């Protein structure tokens, strides 16, 4: 399901709502909050009931309302969720979503004139519902435009996809090879009962316990894990395992392994994986930094936590291989 992919528009990833033609009732910035929408009944302000979302006035003339969002990380969109939580009598009957690729730092005027292409055609949506739409497009986009036909309110816009940042300017510099901002992402994980494993790859420090990855309490044998695709083929020099805010639910130990897709071996072959960080004890609520040396190149990584628990952030600082750097230049 595409919702397992990172939300490229999220404020937590650096997304921004640059423009809305109207926000009379509720602010456009609410659209990309990482948190779930909340609602307090009979909580009135000067403009009426306060909503945790974007809401326009009642349109009395033909047309539509729209908002322009800069993605935190450019990428290929695989699906969109238009969440109308708590908008029950004031949601738009139809919505559409468009994408554009505009490099650099365009002005609003330039963005409004951009070559916008459809990601989600004009579709009916329901109130107080997470309206999910798969996207069939190979286009790389830097911005999206949410259009409400004709007006109303939307609580959140989630733009799930595969990150495709432009790393040419950073190809010869150390990178966090695991970070979503660099192009890394979580492919799968054993358990996401409390929070998503992709959170560990977000920028900055975790703000609270739910701003990381936390599994349910394991009662059987085995351990929890997550598997990553790195930003590119590279060698890892420093590993950071951050358990901030995980005070009574941090794992006891962690292990990090690497896999090179160019080895010709199968990812399912356990012998194809090599230790980047052997099984190592970690402490609650703290940043652990490990210098690793003479690592072979890797395209993927696998983090085991023993037996369960949560981590806030995972960093894998290293360098892309010369071949990977050359491919970026091309």
Automatic annotation (TrEMBL):
Q: Does the keyword Protease apply?
A: no
What enzyme category does the UniProt record give? hydrolase
Checking Pfam families in the record gives: Allantoicase
List the molecular function annotations (GO) for this entry: allantoicase activity
Extract the signal peptide range.
none
Its keywords, alphabetically, are:
Hydrolase, Purine metabolism
Name the UniProt record assigns to this protein: Probable allantoicase
């Amino acid at each position: 399901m595409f919702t397992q992919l990172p939300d490229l528009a999220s404020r937590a990833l650096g997304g921004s709502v640059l423009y809305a033609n109207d926000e009379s009732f509720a602010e456009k910035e609410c659209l990309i909050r990482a948190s779930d929408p909340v609602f307090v009944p009979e909580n009135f302000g000067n403009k009426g009931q306060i909503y945790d979302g974007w809401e326009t006035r009642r349109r009395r003339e033909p047309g539509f309302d729209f908002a322009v969002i800069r993605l935190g990380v450019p990428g290929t969109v695989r699906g969109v969720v238009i969440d109308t939580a708590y908008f029950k009598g004031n949601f738009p009957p139809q919505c559409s979503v468009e994408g554009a690729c505009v490099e650099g730092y365009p002005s609003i005027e330039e963005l409004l004139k951009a070559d916008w292409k459809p990601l989600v055609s004009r579709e009916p949506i329901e109130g107080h519902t997470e309206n999910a739409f798969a996207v069939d497009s190979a286009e790389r986009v830097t911005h999206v435009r949410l259009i409400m036909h004709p007006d109303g309110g939307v609580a959140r816009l989630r733009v799930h996809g595969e990150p495709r940042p432009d790393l040419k300017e950073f190809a010869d510099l150390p990178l966090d090879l695991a970070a979503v901002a660099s192009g890394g992402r979580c492919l799968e994980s054993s358990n996401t009962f409390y929070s998503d494993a992709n959170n560990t790859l977000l920028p900055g420090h975790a703000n609270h316990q739910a701003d990381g990855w936390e599994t349910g309490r394991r009662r059987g044998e085995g351990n929890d894990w997550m598997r990553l695709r790195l930003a590119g083929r590279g060698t890892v020099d420093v590993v950071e395992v951050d358990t901030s805010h995980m005070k009574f639910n941090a794992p006891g130990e962690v292990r990090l392994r690497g896999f090179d897709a160019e080895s010709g071996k199968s990812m399912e072959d356990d012998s194809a994986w090599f230790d980047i960080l052997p099984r190592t004890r970690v402490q609650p609520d703290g940043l652990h930094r490990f210098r690793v040396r003479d690592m072979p190149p890797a395209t993927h990584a696998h983090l085991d936590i023993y037996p369960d628990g949560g981590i806030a952030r995972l960093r894998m600082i290293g360098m892309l291989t010369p071949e990977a750097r050359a491919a970026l230049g091309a």
